[in-house]
TrEMBL record:
Pfam families: MazE_antitoxin
Protein's recorded name: AbrB/MazE/SpoVT family DNA-binding domain-containing protein
SpoVT-AbrB domain sequence ranges: 4-49
PANTHER family: PTHR36432, TRANSITION STATE REGULATOR ABH-RELATED
Keyword ATP-binding: no
InterPro entries from the UniProt entry: B_subtilis_Trans_State_Reg, SpoVT-AbrB_dom, SpoVT-AbrB_sf
Keywords noted in UniProt: DNA-binding
GO MF annotations in UniProt: DNA binding
Amino acid sequence: MEARIVRRVDKLGRIVMPKELRSSLDIKTNDELEFFLDDEQFIIRKRKSACEFCARTEDVLDFEGHKICRKCIEKMIALL
């Protein structure tokens, strides 16, 4: 089923994303979103977390506000 919800852009260019959409996409406060143009469509999607060192998106953990993948963690441990 296609969601059809209309929102107005305010004078600062902001749009409020409806709670139903945030919930269905598991979007929480401070999550990063990506914006794309595809032909005539404007696409917003939740950004996958990427490792700050190698940019991998698989197996990424959050350590005190930093995104680090397991492979980079293993490399750091090997340095000790």
